[in-house]
Design goal:
- The complex is a heterodimer of chains A (232) and B (141).
- Chain A is built from six helices and six strands.
- In chain A, helix 1 runs antiparallel to helix 6.
- The two termini of chain A are 51 Å apart.
- Chain B has three helices and six strands; from the N terminus they run ααβββαβββ.
- In chain B, strands 1, 2, 3, 4, 5 and 6 form a six-stranded mixed beta sheet that branches.
- In chain B, a hairpin with an 8-residue loop joins strand 2 and strand 3.
- Classes of the chains: A alpha+beta (232), B alpha+beta (141).
């Protein structure tokens, strides 16, 4: 019986020379096959996990941010000067996705009642985009314009926010500085939005941490479930 | 707060002649003449008023830092002059640790450019510059 001599190598490098082949020990071959399968599986799992993790973190952090916005707006409305109530009812909270390179409003919320009863009318403009986004921010704003006594356009929301001097006349509704833009009822006044924000500024870190924790808990619970049903 | 208010007023009155705030304003600053604290008198037209408002809460952990805010209100005879003076105030005071002479602290402008408030009864434009302060080892008095 002729014995054919072959060149065996255990190197991963390509064999050189005519008739050269690669032979591996059976256990190594099996090991490599199983490792490759395991690696592929791990990569798939990691891909799913990182995708889910990012989405979960963004969702829960966004959730915390918009609730922070609700609380600031509710507080701001209580201290917002009013006469007709149009300035108060113009307050809104926007959850913004994306950065300066592109983005938009994901969720928009306005107070259902101008007196800050606590109910919000929420419109989910593009909630899905927010969960896919890498950057989130909130915007809390009042938007009310009108005219001054000369008929010029006046940003009433800004004016009421920045006018530190008293404009409540001694006889009541008569403005002391100029015009009758607002009555300054007890408890209302300038910097109504900035003061409301300043009250909450110390809680921002805690809220974001809470959002991260909720996202991680969600992922941990979900993957436990997936493992139990054999999806992973 | 009085100390901070008067420190800022002193900052204006001690500006040298080449400072952009003073050159754009067109005159030297004198306390009680064209620099005021808390009140806006009917005259003169061109004047600067310093008004305090809340600011962020004091540091609750070390209790050694406070973050008061001030509004600097500029009234000038023309819109262009008012804008220039207020912009010069923002540029000069932002990140300036010499604004408060008797306190360790630094000033931050909240807005990058002046906020136009309104024309008053005499048609004089009013501009605002809002400033935040980080004051260290200081209790507002």
């Amino acid at each position: 019986m002729a014995v054919r001599r072959v060149r065996a190598t255990f190197s991963k490098a390509a064999p050189s020379g005519v008739g050269a082949s690669v032979y591996n020990y059976p256990y190594e071959q099996a090991y490599q096959t199983s490792m490759k399968a395991f690696e592929t599986k791990i990569n798939e799992v990691m891909k799913v996990l990182s995708f889910d993790l990012r989405r979960a973190l963004t969702k829960y952090i966004g959730d915390e941010l918009i609730h922070l916005g609700y609380e600031i707006l509710q507080d701001a409305v209580l201290h917002c000067p009013y006469k007709t109530g149009k300035l108060r009812s113009s307050g809104e909270v926007n959850l913004i996705y994306g950065s300066s390179r592109g983005g938009g409003v994901a969720i928009q919320a306005v107070l259902a009642e101008a007196d800050s009863s606590g109910d919000f009318m929420v419109e989910k403009v593009a909630e899905g985009r927010a969960t896919d986004s890498k950057a989130l921010s909130i915007e809390i704003q009042f938007d009310r314009t009108g005219e001054d006594e000369e008929g010029r356009s006046l940003d009433i929301a800004l004016w009421a926010h920045e006018q530190l001097l008293p404009y409540w006349g001694p006889t009541g509704m008569k403005a002391k500085v100029k015009g009758k833009y607002f009555a300054r009822q007890p408890g209302t006044g300038p910097k109504y939005l900035q003061n409301a924000y300043n009250k909450q500024v110390g809680t921002v870190d805690r809220r974001i941490r809470e959002g991260i924790n909720r996202g991680l808990r969600f992922i941990a619970g979900r993957n436990k479930y997936l493992m139990e049903v054999g999806e992973i | 707060m009085a100390t901070l208010l008067y420190d800022v007023a002193r900052y204006f009155t001690t500006l040298n002649a080449t400072n952009p705030i003073r050159t754009n304003f067109g005159a030297a600053f004198t306390f009680g003449t064209n620099v005021f604290v808390g009140v806006v008198p009917a005259t003169p037209t061109n004047c600067v008023t310093i008004l305090p408002y809340g600011g962020r809460p004091p540091d609750t952990r070390t209790k050694k830092a406070q973050y008061p805010s001030l509004q600097i209100r500029v009234r000038m005879s023309s819109y262009q002059k008012g804008y220039k003076v207020t912009q010069a105030i923002i540029n000069s005071m932002h990140l300036n640790d010499k604004v408060c002479a008797s306190i360790r602290g630094i000033a931050y402008a909240i807005q990058s450019q002046p906020v136009f408030l309104e024309y008053d009864e005499e048609e004089q434009p009013i501009f605002l510059a809002n400033m935040d302060f980080n004051l260290i080892q200081y209790t507002v008095s």
